[in-house]
Write a structure and sequence with these properties.
The chain has 216 residues and is of the alpha/beta class. It has helices at residues 49-56, 79-88, 105-113, 121-130, 146-158, 176-193; strands spanning 5-13, 30-34, 38-42, 63-69, 72-73, 90-93, 164-168, 196-201, 212-215. It is 31% helix and 22% strand. Helix 3 runs parallel beside helix 5 (146-158).
């Protein structure tokens, strides 16, 4: 079953419980994001944007309120259910990227793609070329620049089925041209799958057309 919508209801990171955090469009509010929508979450540093992504991916539960997928509280999901969600319904690019530094760009990408065989080698090579890192395909990512690593991470995140893709500051180290190319690739793959996009930013927004910007 696909994730048709994500609802965030009266949520707030526990660490902010006793702070005077004003209600925003996400925290201490009610937000519904439907599959197919494109959302950019604009936030200042330290306001919980990375935490939100981790909550939606099930990596953390230290929040108040509720987060619901199709009306079901995600706190109640089993390990097996989360495994299936992460394999076929949720793709996630964390801010720290979580690449294996000793592996090459292609090895990092193929490791993810091997889980579902979602895309062919020719598609991966096309994406590498479009993002200008085809010459770094067999280069260890630990020796690449942060901007190059971000482009590897974006390609890797596209190498699986998903209903929603979560992108935490995905283009913070990209110039405008590579930002637009990355945004186009993400949007095209999301549209192909009928998926939603949730991207966070502290300034350098992912340049998605028709995206709705909300404040954290």
């Amino acid at each position: 079953m696909k994730i048709e919508d994500i609802r965030i209801e009266d949520a707030l990171p526990v660490v902010f419980e006793h702070d005077r955090v004003r209600a925003s469009e996400v925290w201490r509010s009610r937000l519904k994001i439907r599959r197919g929508e494109r959302i950019v979450i604009s936030a200042e540093s330290g306001t919980g944007k990375s935490s939100l992504c981790a909550y939606l991916y099930g990596n953390r539960k230290d929040y108040l309120g509720k987060i619901l997928f199709n009306g079901d509280d995600i706190r109640n999901f089993s390990i097996g259910e989360w495994q299936e969600l992460r394999r076929r319904h949720l793709s996630y690019l964390p801010q720290e990227l979580s690449l294996f530094p000793e592996l090459t760009a292609m090895q990092n990408i193929e490791l993810k793609n091997s889980l579902t065989g979602h895309v062919g080698r020719d598609r991966i090579e096309e994406w590498l070329q479009m993002l200008g890192i085809e010459a770094r395909a067999d280069f260890p990512v630990g020796k690449m620049s942060v901007g190059q690593q971000q482009r590897v991470g974006i390609i890797r995140a596209l190498c699986q089925p998903f209903d929603f893709i979560l992108l935490d500051e995905p283009v913070s180290h990209l110039d405008e041209n590579n930002n637009r190319i990355a945004a186009r690739l993400i949007a095209e793959e999301a549209e192909r799958q009928g998926a939603g996009i949730i991207a966070t930013s502290v300034g350098n927004h992912l340049l998605l057309e028709d995206a709705v910007t909300i404040c954290l």
